[in-house]
């Protein structure tokens, strides 16, 4: 006979009914704070600073999003850390607005959509779709990462169709996800890039050649360089330079990987660095670069964003392990 606690949804947890369904009370409180209007938050902080007679009237510190990761059940704690709680407490929706963290969140969302979405709980599925909506909204508002946003929508649409009969959760919720993805795809199809006016501000082609070459060499996908060359003649000249491809090889691949395709009998002037880059790209894949990523504290097992810091009790001799999107999902056995 199954055991039924005081609350059949999760014994020991308090739940509240919202417009989106039932949610845990502790997670709902965090979401309410994160979804507050920015003007309201700024006003509340300004009033708090005035009460404290703080001299910093225009600057404030936002709540540091982090979560204490519980590896297993102990006598003191009878609850495991869920992936839905981690997505809320780490403020994945707000991280989309930060240019340093959006690539990390996008890669994490891509991994979840490709392999994990049908196996997630209904609450986790709602959080994933909400993060996807935030990425699409940010792409339409800033006109940045529109190609990656379109790719995420295509992946989500395929997964929702293939997982129609094998997903966890209600059929009504799964249909709601499909309607949301369809609506976002329609918005993205109607989107048109705004032509930049001649405002007199500096452009990429106005920078020195060394700066332009350094910027292009750090672009993750070389296809973006080729597309930029089709749109601008000066960028096309850079894309055909041997020096640019040499810098891209040494930045995106290790010396051991480059030696695999580097001929030993030729001089340095005879090396075709563009050919070597293509071979390394095909063999070893694309290098993932993140300006900011999550980290796991070795002292308190807290997961936090490296750029925002972590309010750990142990200030000294604290080591942290950076977490790639794959490592983050492995913590939750996904």
TrEMBL record:
Keyword Nucleus: yes
Keyword annotations of the record: Nucleus, Ubl conjugation pathway
Leader sequence residues: none
Gene Ontology biological process terms from the UniProt entry: protein ubiquitination
InterPro entries on file: F-box-like_dom_sf, FBX25/32
Main location class: nucleus
A cellular component annotation (GO) from this entry: cytoplasm
Pathway of action: Protein modification; protein ubiquitination
Compartments it resides in: Nucleus
Name the UniProt record assigns to this protein: F-box domain-containing protein
Organism annotation: Patella caerulea
Higher taxonomy: Eukaryota, Metazoa, Spiralia, Lophotrochozoa, Mollusca
């Amino acid at each position: 006979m199954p055991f039924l606690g005081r609350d059949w949804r999760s014994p020991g947890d308090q739940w509240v009914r919202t417009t989106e369904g039932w949610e845990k009370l502790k997670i709902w409180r965090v979401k309410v704070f994160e979804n507050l209007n920015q003007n309201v938050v700024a006003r509340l902080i300004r009033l708090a600073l005035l009460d404290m007679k703080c001299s910093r009237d225009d600057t404030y510190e936002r709540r540091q999003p982090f979560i204490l990761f519980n590896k297993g059940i102990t006598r003191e704690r009878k609850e495991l850390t869920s992936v839905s709680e981690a997505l809320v407490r780490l403020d994945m929706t707000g991280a989309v607005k930060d240019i340093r963290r959006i690539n990390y969140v996008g890669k994490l969302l891509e991994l979840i959509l490709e392999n994990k979405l049908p196996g997630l709980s209904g609450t986790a599925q709602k959080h994933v779709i909400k993060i996807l909506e935030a990425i699409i909204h940010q792409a339409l508002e800033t006109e940045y990462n529109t190609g990656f946003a379109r790719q995420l929508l295509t992946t989500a649409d395929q997964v929702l169709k293939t997982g129609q009969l094998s997903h966890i959760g209600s059929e009504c919720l799964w249909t709601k996800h499909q309607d949301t993805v369809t609506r976002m795809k329609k918005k993205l199809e109607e989107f048109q890039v705004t032509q930049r006016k001649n405002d007199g501000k500096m452009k990429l082609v106005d920078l020195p050649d060394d700066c332009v070459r350094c910027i292009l060499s750090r672009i993750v996908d070389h296809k973006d360089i080729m597309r930029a060359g089709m749109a601008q003649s000066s960028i096309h000249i850079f894309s055909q330079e041997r020096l640019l491809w040499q810098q891209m090889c040494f930045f995106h691949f290790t010396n051991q990987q480059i030696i695999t395709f580097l001929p030993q009998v030729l001089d340095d002037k005879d090396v075709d660095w563009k050919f070597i880059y293509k071979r390394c790209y095909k063999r070893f894949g694309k290098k993932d670069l993140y300006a900011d990523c999550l980290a796991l504290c070795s002292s308190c097992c807290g997961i936090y964003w490296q750029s925002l810091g972590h309010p750990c009790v142990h200030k000294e001799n604290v080591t942290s392990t950076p977490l790639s999107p794959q490592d983050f999902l492995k913590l939750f056995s996904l």
